[in-house]
Write a structure and sequence with these properties.
Layout (H helix, E strand, L loop, with lengths): L12 H28 L3 H20 L5 E4 L4 E8 L6 E10 L2 E10 L3
Antiparallel strand pairs: 1-2, 2-3, 3-4
């Protein structure tokens, strides 16, 4: 038979504070790890502009396009700048500037005219 006068041992305030502190530290560490993982991932629009840039570079090489051009897309802009190399008249330095939001990326390519 269960006695009504039996007491259940309760935890003290010190034990409660320690438990809450441990839970808070674990939550803080988990939040920092999650924030670092989210921050370090590559944005999807970078994959999109790299794909478009590859197509534009291939077209530039195959069609021997030696003029400046700007390609506007929904989330980014690719700007092609062509400069003739002084050391060799048949080569061009082609610079691609990609503006995606606040970020600017630069890729360079050397083109050769074998006409």
């Amino acid at each position: 038979m269960i006695s009504l006068n039996s007491r259940i041992k309760a935890s003290s305030i010190v034990e409660t504070v320690i438990a809450i502190t441990i839970i808070a530290i674990c939550s803080l560490v988990a939040t920092l790890v999650f924030a670092n993982v989210i921050h370090s991932t590559t944005p999807l629009n970078k994959y999109a502009f790299e794909f478009e840039l590859e197509k534009i570079m291939e077209s530039t090489i195959n069609n021997k396009e030696n003029t400046d051009a700007t390609y506007k897309f929904e989330e980014f802009t690719i700007q092609r700048k062509v400069e003739q190399q002084l050391s060799c008249q048949d080569t061009h330095r082609i610079t691609f500037l990609i503006t995606a939001g606040k970020n600017i990326y630069q890729y360079e390519l050397i083109g050769y005219n074998n006409d």
